[in-house]
Amino acid sequence: MLFTAPIFFINMAWNMGAFDWLQHAHPKNRRLIELGNKKVIIAGAGLSGLTVGTALAQRGWDVHLLERSSELREIGAGLYTWENGLKVLEEINVFEEACQNVEFITSLNMMDENRELIHSTLFSKGNRFCVIPRKQIHSALVRAARNAGVSIETNACAVSADPSGSLTLDNGRTYKADLVVAADGVYSNIRQSLNIAQTMEKMSNGALRALIPRIEADEKGIAREHWSGYRRIGIAPSTDQFRYVYLTAPSTDVEGLSDPINKEEWISSFPHLESVIERIDQARLDRHFYYIYLHAWSIGRVALLGDAAHGMEPNLGQGAGVSITSALELAKQLEHFDVDTALRRWEGLMKPTAEKTQIWSRIYGSAASNWPKELLHVRSDVIRKAIHSENIESMMSLAARHITGR
């Protein structure tokens, strides 16, 4: 009976005709069948593109993902991952693989130039925080996407899209779909091709980022961000083998943002961190960061996702977190509504969160890099008193508390 039942239902569907069988199907099954006919083209196989592709494929969509590079790879060191991002990884079933050997952090402490505490953020089981190696989370998402049935094409550089739901590559090839998703980064070609009011603001701050080997003397479970003048060094446990380190400075700080890193220069600002700085072998340099502001995240059947829609400085560590949360939110809205309605609801839910996160990221960055020089001696006290305000701390953690599907 176990073997004959499927054959019976297949024959019944054939004899009744696809339309009649669809009408008799259970409502849940009917929705999945209808979604299976819907196709999405995604430009960009970064974290947000892979997340939305996986989530939609898991919901019955036909997903084709285009990547401009010749191979699938993630550039960078570690990824600050807060509760919102971790919930996304759990919902698309990549948490175990992405977080393998990752050490969860119990507190994140801001320290001033006198090595005194400015503020401490505490974490718990319901409010988690960790740093995942970027290559590790990207590899987990690639496998999840392929397992879900996502078709991935490399050497496919998208240059434009049309609101009707078409996407064109640099070789002239054009794809048509029910939905086009542009997850092609801060310099998005697709965004530039669309008639959407937008602002791309170049910031005068940059950073070096690296994974360094762990040693026995390293702290466990505690992340710290050290301030000295206009320079900052962040140090956090990542896995059982690595710690994540970032060094930020104004873009005009030539010695601070040299490539390769000028270790002596950084040790002069943070002598107590010499052991950490000396362990930096290779580091990724970003001399500038960008904020992207859009009047709308979608036009017609084209949606902009991740850095293409809301690029920001990494001051709050929520650039990727907001992006993958937005990706899952989009998939959930498309599961229940037609494309037009889903896009409208998705933007209404996610855009305010992204924009407020951008605002607080700018405020944080200004305090770190643009504080009046003559008032640096009072900066720690001012920040300490301001950030201890319950409202400010709540606003800064807004993105981390976002739950998709609400």
What's the count of strands?
20
What is the number of domains? 1
Contiguous low-pLDDT stretches (5 residues minimum) are 1-36
How far apart are the termini?
42 Å
CATH architecture: 3-Layer(bba) Sandwich
Biggest sheet: strands, sense, closure? 7 strands, mixed
Class by alpha and beta content: alpha/beta
How much of the polypeptide forms β-strand, as a percent range?
15-25%
Q: Briefly, what CATH class?
A: Alpha Beta
CATH topology: the name is FAD/NAD(P)-binding domain
The count of helical stretches stands at 15
Mean pLDDT: 91
Helix content, binned percent: 25-40%
Oligomer: single chain
Spatial ordering of strands, largest sheet: 5-4-14-15-16-13-17
CATH superfamily: FAD/NAD(P)-binding domain
Q: Judging from the principal axes of the Cα atoms, what is the shape?
A: globular
Write down the Rg. Answer: 23 Å
Plain-language structure description:
With 406 residues, the protein is an alpha/beta fold. The protein has a single domain, classed as FAD/NAD(P)-binding domain. It contains 15 helices and 20 strands. The chain has helices spanning 4-16, 18-24, 27-36, 47-57, 83-91, 95-98, 134-148, 189-193, 263-269, 274-278, 307-310, 319-336, 339-369, 379-387, 390-396; strands at 39-43, 62-66, 78-82, 107-111, 117-122, 129-133, 151-153, 158-162, 166-169, 174-176, 179-182, 198-202, 205-213, 222-228, 231-237, 242-250, 284-286, 290-294, 298-299, 302-304. The strands form 5 sheets. It has a 7-stranded mixed β-sheet with strand order 5-4-14-15-16-13-17. β14 (222-228) and β15 (231-237) form a beta hairpin. α1 (4-16) crosses α2, α5 packs across α12 and α12 (319-336) runs antiparallel to α13. The radius of gyration is 23 Å and the shape is globular. Keywords: Monooxygenase, Oxidoreductase. GO terms for molecular function: FAD binding; monooxygenase activity. It comes from Brevibacillus fluminis. Residues 39-336 form the FAD-binding domain. InterPro entries: FAD-bd, FAD-dep_Monooxygenase_BioMet, FAD/NAD-bd_sf.
